[in-house]
Each structure stands twice: as structure tokens, then as C-alpha cells.
Prior knowledge:
The complex is a heterodimer.
Chain A: E1 4-7, E2 10-14, E3 19-25, E4 29-37, E5 44-49, E6 55-58, E7 61-65, E8 71-76, E9 85-93, E10 101-102, E11 106-111
Parallel strand pairs in A: 2-11
Antiparallel strand pairs in A: 1-3, 3-8, 4-5, 4-9, 6-7, 7-8, 9-10, 9-11
Chain B: E1 5-7, E2 10-13, E3 19-24, E4 31-37, E5 44-50, E6 53-56, E7 65-68, E8 75-79, E9 88-95, E10 106-107, E11 111-115
Parallel strand pairs in B: 2-11
Antiparallel strand pairs in B: 1-3, 3-8, 4-5, 4-9, 5-6, 7-8, 9-10, 9-11
Amino acid sequence: GQQLNQSPQSMFIQEGEDVSMNCTSSSIFNTWLWYKQDPGEGPVLLIALYKAGELTSNGRLTAQFGITRKDSFLNISASIPSDVGIYFCAGQASDSNYQLIWGAGTKLIIKP
Amino acid sequence: GAGVSQSPRYKVAKRGQDVALRCDPISGHVSLFWYQQALGQGPEFLTYFQNEAQLDKSGLPSDRFFAERPEGSVSTLKIQRTQQEDSAVYLCASSLASAGWTGELFFGEGSRLTVL
């Protein structure tokens, strides 16, 4: 079946540093989504991407839909303590208009 | 409240017990999804409703899992004869769109099920 590889699995960073994480797929996706999940909460949508090559920003967050349609990355600039959490990529394949395939998540930890 | 509400937040069941998990989606949202999230993993699709119609149940792990949304709003996920491998967080999500869905799902806080 379709799989998403999300990396890194976890990141330890200093406050103020920039962060980069990415997802790759074994198949083509029509939509890439980035969600953040805090402990004890459900995921919350950060950025949605709908076209190959699209670059979209949301505050300090920037995400891109890869031109091959098989990858996406998320950058966070100048990290702050509230950025801590788990970031998930999710993709929607062309053979489904509602099912999402999810990565395993990148856990972001800010070193004191 | 304005968000997706799930209950109970935590459920401990003995192996073999039946459990029922409730989801109250955002009012007016047509689409409703159930996901299963194991520790350290992303959500895995279980089932999808459009209004009261269950359009896809391909992700339900076994016939012990059953979901319904009889009036097109509140949904219940029932697990019969629970087993230890059923232990997970069960997430409910709703979306305003049906056709031309944009991918914005609004998730509840989840129901954490622990089977002893």
C-alpha cells in the first residue's frame, strides 16, 4: 500500500533555530497537508498544498509541494517554545477524494 | 462548544468487554471520519461518513469494529470483545465539505482506549 516516509523522527533544537522536516511518498499525491499535534489533543491543520511546486507560508511556517508530487517539506523559522509538538504530513492520492495517508510524525523538542 | 467533541476521553476496558466511543462533530459538517492512532504513529483511517451514509469502512480492522451515524450528526464507534491490540487513541474528525473536499479536517481530542 501507499506509504509516507517522514523525517527526521525527532529533533532537538535551541530556541531561535530554524527547523526543516520532510515527507516522501512512494506514489503521486494531489494534496499535501501539514498538521501539528500537541499532547492530549487532536491534530490541527497548519498548511495545505494543492499544486506541484506550490510554496505556501503561514507566519513562521513555510511548506512546499514537491514538483515530482511525491514529496513535501515544512520549514519553521526562529523556533519558539510553543512550536514543541509532533508535526505530521498527510497526503491525498489521486484515487481517493477523501482518504489521507499520514506520516509517522516528527517530534520537535526545544532544548532549555 | 464550537469544536469536535469526543467522549469518553479515557476508557479502560478488560479484554473481552464491549466499548462505545462517541463523537459530536461541528454542527453542519457533512463529512465525518474515524481514525486510530497508535503510540508514536500517525492516524490510520478507519471509516468515513457523508451525512448518515457510511461510504467507506475499509479501514476497520475486523468485524468487531462497527460505526454508525444514524442522523447524520453524532457518530458512535463500537468495538466488541476488545483485545489488547485495540489499545490506541481513537480520533474523530469532521469536515464541512463533501464534494471537492479540501483536506481541512477538524479533529476532536480523541478517546484513549486501554485494554487490559
